[in-house]
Amino acid sequence: QHHQRVPSDRDLLRVGLRGRDLVDDLADQITTTQPNPQKVAVTGDTLVVLSTGPIAYDFDSGDSTSGGSGGLDLTPVDALGAATGPARHIEVAPSAEDAHLGAPLDLAVFDGRAYMTSATSNAVFVADLAAGALVRGASNPLLYGDTSPRLTTGAITAGARHLYVTDFNADTLHIVDPGADAVRPCAVDLG
Fold first, then answer.
1. pTM > 0.85
2. Cα gap 48→156, rounded to integer Å
């Protein structure tokens, strides 16, 4: 099998948030702690950057796995002008048992927690932003839909009481109930 790894050199996140509610003298760039930054969110006074980390892709089979850790970088918005890097980092390491469980891809912040879908599995990882800790990682993710094919690339967004996750391969929508810490299928077929 032919495996090719996406380059793992540190990507630079261009912070283009100069604006009305942020400081005027932002740093031009902040280096993320993991490669492949994908999503940016501002919650309260904190800038949250999600990085997928490296992905290993097998061109023969079409299978992709996590090639290393991804995670969240947290930086206070008012510190961006002088920041040389993230203030805190929450690592999302791949599973030692299943390399498909890892690679956070999409991000929604809800009630002080970051919910992250996986680029390589049907998993949702959860981090407590105030505690700076992973609550549900690759060893105990919230799972949704079928596990085949693996490349699910689920998008996630927050509503008033729930989060909603799409399953790319199954053309379905799933509902994350943060109060019950569970995922349930939705009757909506997106296909």
1. no
2. 15
